[in-house]
Amino acid sequence: MRRSCFLLAVLVLALITSHSSAQGSGSAANYTSRALTRYAHGDLDGAISDLDAAIAFDPGYAEAFYNRGRAHHDKRKLDSAIEDYNRAIALDPRLAPAYNNRCVALKERGELDAALVDCNKAISIKPRLADAYSNRGDVLLLKANLDGAIADFTRAVQINPRFAEAYYNRGVVRYMKGDLNGAISDYDRSIRINPRYVEAYCNRGAAKRGKGDLEGAIADYTAAIGFNPNHTLAYMNRGLARMLQGKQKEAELDFDRCLELDRNMGPLLRKRIEAIKRQLEPNR
Known about the structure:
The protein is an all-alpha fold. Helix content is about 75%, strand content about 0%. The chain has 15 helices and no strands.
């Protein structure tokens, strides 16, 4: 669930980097090893160039196609990524991470049923692949299967208790189901694992506000802003919480900052402010 308060699951870099001579020629393995180093340093174009060379040396090298797919995926070239994952799977039908990554790419392309098939396949090959459960949970959430999503996020954290994104995603679903205490508990866990998890602070703030804990909500929005001073939603939501406290001047400062960062937030901000005013009317 990414790039909103839903945060999509991210794969770790622990890839298959040691290869026997049967898996790829020495030159192909060397290019792949260098590609992984470049990938780790954010040099996606350099990684792709090395993987092109690895594939030229050994067109049957499944891991080179898989890793090139990852680099294309990170560049948001979904069609190229899926094509490479397809080639990797054709060469090695037991390569669970390729099914898992193709699941994510298909989900991002809106092909939820096909994505679900790939997640299921990854899990059938590697039943303890925590990322695959988390990614399947994302797909099930998009298909409005909330209980199924919670079950998958729960399985992901059972396998990997340090999986901050899976706790966060389960918190999102619990919030959607009205389980504010459960959501806060999950956001607590994700923040303990990753103290700089901005979206977890934002969503925990929303859950605390839902429980009437305005001071707690403001503290979380403030923490989010501390880590990301350009987070428009954090300013907006902190302003709304301050409005509920009757701190109109402080609220207006937050609203002004929100609009300075993104003028397009105006319609949403006005809608939220009107909702707060209606909420406060019975108390006037």
